[in-house]
Amino acid sequence: MDRKIARRDFVNGLALTAAAVAMQGALPWARAAQTPTAAGYPPAAGGLTGQTDQANAVMHAVRDGMLKATTGQSTGEHFDLVVVGAGISGLAAAHEYRRLNPKARILLLDPLADVGGHAHRNEFQVGGRLLIGYGGSQSLQTPSYFSPAVNAMLHSVGIEPQKFEGYYDGKWYDRRGLGAGLYFPKKVYGHAATVRETDKAADWVNRSPLNAQAKRDLIELTDAPPDYLKGLSVQQKRARLASATYREFLLDIARVDPQLVTYFQDSTREYYGGGIDVVSALDAWANGNPGFDGMQLGDAVDRAMSPSSRLLQTDPDDYIYHFPDGNASVARALVRSLIPQTMGGHTMESLVLGRLDYGQLDVKGHPVRIRLGSTAVHVRHLGDPRTAPQVEVVYAGVGGMHSVVAGQVVLACWHRVIPYLTNELGAPQTAALRDQVKIPLVYTNVVLKNWAAFERLKLSAITSPGHFWLGADLDFPVSMGSYHFAQKTSDPVILHLRRIPGGRPGDSARDQFNTGRAELLRLSFADYERQARNLLGGALSSGGFDPARDIAAITVNRWAHGYAYEYMRPGDTYWPGGPLPIQTSRKGWGRIAIANSDAGAYAYAHSAIDQGVRAARELLGGSGPAISDFPGPPQRKLKFFGS
């Protein structure tokens, strides 16, 4: 287990020039600026990537009062639009702005080494074979619920979601008899066990190391739960479940053994960010957690359900709309449309194996330019915001502090950053912007030389309750064009590990996300690597897995500020009736508009697109296909309980 695994080293990046350091003082952020040329080819960087210390350093210095930069050396550049943030929402804003104003000159600024935000691509070479993985934003979920604006934009950049029905091999796991399993770590349960799940809990629970009472309770919860709220009407039951967390449901309503709280604690994190101590029992029901079948709750969506629960309760689509690099291909398609010199081709297939030319992102003379390694630190109207003709944007980049002038600006960055960028906002909007606390997450891709251990154990995925990692899944079986997913057991494959760190049970969801973020930033690549080896070495040992022999590479994608926060009961009592914080936070002023998925309070790529489109239209007064501007699936497509 402790033998060294060969891997690509993490690139620490380049320091700013001595002149730049002298200008601001010898500050910690002085290592932050790094151009894509210096970093090499970002998708193949390996090691610890994503929101690295160097990418975060400038804004952390601003936050901590160590950097007060309100002016910079003018570049002499003037743009019609500057977009702060080159993630999917910022790219969508630029795309919509160009649709409405085809001659517009646009600059996008982003502190990361790659374009797309956390729609991030990982590439690996194993035995002469290219493997592509997703390092962040995963899939285009539920195209049936996309707004007309999202559908129009995807079509305009060559993405046709229905084609995934041919790209995704829905029978890949079934043909091989692979299914889901559970790994119980010894440190949590007394002794370790890997158990293959089946439809009936009674068929597998007794092979787990749970205590005797917890086994009986889990079998009852899953296979034959009674009506734990007998005597209440369906409306009263739903209201009770909305006001209680799933943890409270287990302990106070179902009265199960406390060990099941440990077992289920992280079961809600992947959709809601928080554990069962902050997620309502109503949302846990939508998530598929057990204990509710005996209550006869019906199928209709409850208005008190969170946006993602509304989706889970009604989702009409299979979860197959996935590029090999996740939504990085959506970002790449938008870049290709905005700057055609970056990549050839026009099809979805050409996105997969096409190599983005990073040298073409920021070229003088191109109508659209993307400047990576550049962190906006100050934004101000050049005059009274009500009448000013221009906006100045100051940013930290290679060579120090710079400034550009724009006719208009879209802030497509995290909402909590915006109050640090400008002093033009009032207290109510500042408070609303700070309400959006991003969910921290770590997506780790572990490349296996083969998947023989999974074949022997007949597993496709492992959930690990109580472990550092939430679990590990074989990658999506997607083949596009000349890129093919593994077919033989001896083929290399990517394994996807997830961690969403939290805080102390009992703290609010937002406080837990901040605690989790601190942990995420504290850990090194070696820490994540060690935990990955621990999980796989333990869970797959009975299948003959040897981490040192069977792991070819590891890339840790760290997103301290990951998914947008979604409103949810019981903590957010204003949901869904409002007023919602986003209704205040996303209001533009003067020549500045606000985008990002934070503006939709909905952590999905199509929400990011909707918000980018809205921001561009606000600035230009344009119109087009309708957007979705309320968190969750389109309300007109939902049948609500009691209506």
Description:
The structure is a single chain. This protein is an alpha/beta fold and 643 residues long. 31% of the residues lie in helices and 18% in strands. The chain contains 25 helices and 17 strands. It has an eight-stranded mixed sheet with strand order 1-16-12-15-14-13-6-7. Helix 11 packs across helix 14. It is globular and about 70 Å long. The chain starts with 17 loop residues before the first helix and ends in a 23-residue tail after the last helix. The N terminus is likely disordered.
**What is the molecular shape?**
globular
Number of strands: 17
Kindly name the structural category: alpha/beta
Distance between the termini: 58 Å
Mind describing the biggest β-sheet? Answer: 8 strands, mixed
What's the arrangement of secondary structure elements?
Elements lengths: L17 H7 L11 H4 L7 E4 L2 H11 L9 E12 L3 H13 L5 E4 L11 E6 L2 E6 L13 H9 L7 H4 L4 H5 L2 E6 L1 H4 L3 E4 L15 H12 L10 H10 L2 H8 L5 H6 L4 H4 L8 H7 L19 H8 L13 H11 L9 H6 L14 E4 L3 E7 L9 E7 L2 E12 L6 H4 L5 H8 L4 E10 L3 H6 L1 E5 L7 E4 L18 E7 L9 H14 L2 H15 L7 H4 E13 L17 H5 L6 E3 L10 H16 L23
Parallel strand pairs: 1-16, 2-3, 2-11, 3-8, 6-13, 11-17
Antiparallel strand pairs: 4-5, 6-7, 9-10, 10-11, 12-15, 12-16, 13-14, 14-15
Q: What brief labels describe this structure?
A:
25 helices; disordered N terminus
Short description:
It is built from 25 helices and 17 strands.
